[in-house]
Write a structure and sequence with these properties.
By secondary structure, the chain is mainly alpha-helical. Helix content is 55%, strand content 11%. The chain has twelve helices and nine strands. A three-stranded mixed sheet has the order 3-5-4, with helices on one face. α5 packs antiparallel against α6, α7 crosses α10 and α8 packs across α9. It is elongated. Bound molecules: zinc ion. The site of zinc ion (ZN) has 8 residues, from α7.
Length: 253
């Protein structure tokens, strides 16, 4: 049996094994390579042997254990911990752990590194840093509004785009910010949003929030409700999210 540069000869008697070793040695002469005698060993699985094995001019050591392809083999055939580990197929739970400890951190780092070099992800990174991206899918689970969550995920991940607003037709530098804060086509929806949010929070809060930059108001509606978390009980936070997300359904990029 061979695997890359590893060769195993299996003989049912010392004489037969020696014949195989001679074959291997002849083959190495023909193809002009050398077996390393220090790395070659004999394992005897039945009786102890007084036999001397040769590989060309070199004796080959008889041992009771050796590593083959990284796995420890012993002459008593007891399953070593290596073999037990390599022969046990991991359960779903173990496999999840293996993936999360060995693969996920590396993949996550590479993905984050790539996103940081790319300006298209500025908004997504800002929002996902304050709210884990999973938050959107948790929201979908809690509220049952999967389509809304999908739409918001699209808004999170669309890079800031300039162009003609699909609702009013004007050329603007950032279509999403424009539609959230200024687009005349969404004026009535925006007013009812302000009213609802004022009811849920307070006039002062809304005044402060709206007077901040377009970007921070957009972020608030998109789910970056860090400020709200300080002053709202959890049920109201969900209501504020619902209101913001309901308004964002009118946005068309
Ligand atoms: Zn517009």
């Amino acid at each position: 049996m061979s695997f890359a540069d590893d060769v195993v000869c299996i003989g049912t008697s010392p004489q037969r094994l020696q014949i195989l070793l001679n074959c291997a040695y002849d083959y190495s002469l023909r193809w002009r390579f050398e077996f390393n005698p220090l790395k070659s060993v004999i394992l005897c699985y039945k009786n102890e042997l007084e036999h001397v094995f040769n590989l060309g001019d070199n004796d080959v050591n008889i041992l009771t254990e050796t590593r083959h392809l990284g796995i420890l083999r012993t002459v008593d055939l007891s399953p070593s911990s290596d073999i037990q580990l390599s022969c046990t197929f991991p359960t779903k739970f173990q496999w999840k752990n293996i993936v999360s400890s060995a693969v996920n951190p590396i993949e996550r780092l590479q993905k984050e590194e790539r996103m940081r070099r790319d300006n298209d992800f500025v908004k997504f990174l800002r929002l996902s840093e304050n709210n884990n991206y999973d938050f959107l899918w948790q929201y979908a689970k809690i509220s049952g509004r999967l389509l809304t969550a999908k739409h918001i995920a699209k808004l999170w991940t669309t890079p800031p785009t300039s162009g003609n607003c699909k609702l009013c037709g004007h050329f603007v530098l950032d279509i999403l910010n424009h539609q959230i804060c200024m687009c005349t086509e969404l004026q009535s929806q925006r007013l009812s949003l302000y009213n609802r949010l004022t009811e849920l929070t307070s006039f002062n809060f809304m005044y402060t929030t709206v007077s901040k930059s377009d970007e921070s108001f957009s972020d608030l509606l998109l789910g970056n409700h860090e400020d709200l978390c300080d002053i709202l009980i959890p049920e109201h936070r969900l209501e504020v999210l619902n209101e913001g997300f309901s308004f964002l359904k009118y946005c068309r990029l």
